Structures are given as C-alpha cells and as structure tokens.
C-alpha cells in the first residue's frame, strides 16, 4: 500500500513542488494539503495520513503546536511528523522534536532525500542523525533543564546497560558505533534501544536523545 502523505506549508508554491516530487513515486500518495497548523489538524482527522510533512513557521498555529497535537496523548491516528525547516539550526526544530516529531529535513534537501525521509519515518524510524540531534540540543541548551532537577522515576526502570546505551544514543553514536564501544553485537544494541523506547514510552531514538538531555542524564556539551 502507498504511504499516505499530508503536505503542510503556508507557501502554495512549495506544496506544489513537493507534490510533484512525491507523486512521481509509486509507493507515495499525497492525500491532502494544509496552509497552517489548524488546517493540518483538520486534515489529519479527516484523511488519516501516515506521514505529515510539516513546516514550522506558519500563521494561526505553527508547526510545533500542530505536531504536539498530532503526536500527543489522545491523538486521532498514527501519523508521523517530519518537520521541514529552512535552517539546519532552527530553534523551532528542538521544540518540534520535543513535541513528538520523528525528525527534520531541510527544505532545500535533494528530492531523493525527501522521498527517502518519508519512507524512513513511515517505517517508524527516526529521520535524523543522532549527531545532528545532539548538535541542536547543545546549541539550544538554554531551552533545556539545568540538570539539577531530580532524575525522573522512569530512568530507574532501565538496567545499567540500557542507561549506557541511552547515553551513547544521546551522544550521537549509531548502533554500529555503540556496539563497538560496548563490545557487543549490533543486534544486541538494537534490542537494548528497543527496551529503552518501550520502558520510557518514546517513539524513536530522536525522542530518546531529547529525553536524555531533558532528564539531565546527559549534559549539553558533555563528551
């Protein structure tokens, strides 16, 4: 079945361009468009897309709040959100990731990257290199807790090894790099990452990295 995509951007010309790119792919189907966050919420409820391609800076309701409502508790469907941004270090991106986005992509990314990003997000993976997540969080550390707050109770549900893996995910290491660092197989790392996501109620490794920073487990700028 084709991946159902909703385009959300306040610039009609950009939406038209994205539609032309995506409709050239047999496994992708653009099911609707929206010009702001409020329209996006209406369209998500009506069309039940698999992936929402979401701009962040829009009138009436921005992409961050729309993302929060689409992916948050009581959401109407399983839609994943892929955030589009003009700048690779946009402060809105941090907030969008915290709100539940599965990743972000630059608006000027090549067509093949846009297509691949949608496929990856639809499959339940995170379209964002952990190293980029860390760079974003480091740059906007002022938006995050100082680290002096009590450790969330949820962290106590993790084993010692799972905590190690979570820290390495937040540092920007891939599964292969984590496996080499801990002297275990990549399959074992994937299992640990899966346990971390399940225990903490997180959707993907992007949210896991954000959680590690927000909980104080990893400090911005730490190695």
From TrEMBL:
<dbReference type="GO" id="GO:0006355">
    <property type="term" value="P:regulation of DNA-templated transcription"/>
</dbReference>
<dbReference type="Pfam" id="PF00196">
    <property type="entry name" value="GerE"/>
</dbReference>
<feature type="modified residue" description="4-aspartylphosphate">
    <location>
        <position position="55"/>
    </location>
</feature>
<dbReference type="GO" id="GO:0003677">
    <property type="term" value="F:DNA binding"/>
</dbReference>
<dbReference type="InterPro" id="IPR039420">
    <property type="entry name" value="WalR-like"/>
</dbReference>
<keyword id="KW-0804">Transcription</keyword>
<dbReference type="InterPro" id="IPR016032">
    <property type="entry name" value="Sig_transdc_resp-reg_C-effctor"/>
</dbReference>
<dbReference type="InterPro" id="IPR058245">
    <property type="entry name" value="NreC/VraR/RcsB-like_REC"/>
</dbReference>
<dbReference type="Pfam" id="PF00072">
    <property type="entry name" value="Response_reg"/>
</dbReference>
<keyword id="KW-0597">Phosphoprotein</keyword>
<dbReference type="InterPro" id="IPR000792">
    <property type="entry name" value="Tscrpt_reg_LuxR_C"/>
</dbReference>
<keyword id="KW-0805">Transcription regulation</keyword>
<feature type="domain" description="HTH luxR-type">
    <location>
        <begin position="151"/>
        <end position="216"/>
    </location>
</feature>
<feature type="domain" description="Response regulatory">
    <location>
        <begin position="4"/>
        <end position="122"/>
    </location>
</feature>
<dbReference type="GO" id="GO:0000160">
    <property type="term" value="P:phosphorelay signal transduction system"/>
</dbReference>
<keyword id="KW-0238">DNA-binding</keyword>
<dbReference type="InterPro" id="IPR001789">
    <property type="entry name" value="Sig_transdc_resp-reg_receiver"/>
</dbReference>
<protein>
    <submittedName>
        <fullName>DNA-binding response regulator</fullName>
    </submittedName>
</protein>
<dbReference type="InterPro" id="IPR011006">
    <property type="entry name" value="CheY-like_superfamily"/>
</dbReference>
């Amino acid at each position: 079945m084709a991946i159902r995509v909703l385009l959300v951007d306040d610039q009609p010309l950009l939406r038209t361009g994205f539609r032309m790119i995506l409709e050239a792919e047999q496994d992708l189907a653009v099911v609707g468009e929206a010009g702001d966050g409020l329209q996006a919420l209406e369209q998500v409820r009506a069309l039940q897309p698999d992936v929402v391609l979401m701009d962040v800076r829009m009138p009436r309701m921005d992409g961050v709040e729309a993302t929060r409502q689409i992916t948050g508790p009581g959401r109407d469907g399983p839609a994943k959100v892929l955030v589009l941004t003009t700048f690779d270090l946009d402060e809105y991106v941090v907030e969008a990731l915290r709100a539940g986005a599965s990743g972000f992509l630059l608006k000027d990314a090549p067509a093949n990257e846009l297509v691949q990003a949608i496929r990856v997000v639809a499959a339940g993976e995170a379209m964002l290199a952990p190293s980029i997540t860390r760079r974003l969080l480091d740059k906007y550390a002022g938006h995050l807790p100082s680290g002096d707050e009590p450790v969330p109770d949820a962290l106590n549900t993790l084993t010692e090894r799972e905590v190690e893996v979570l820290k390495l995910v937040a540092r920007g290491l891939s599964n292969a790099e984590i496996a080499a660092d801990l002297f275990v197989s990549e399959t074992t790392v994937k299992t640990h990452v899966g346990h971390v996501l399940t225990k903490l109620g997180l959707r993907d490794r992007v949210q896991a990295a954000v959680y590690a920073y927000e909980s104080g487990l990893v400090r911005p700028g730490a190695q």
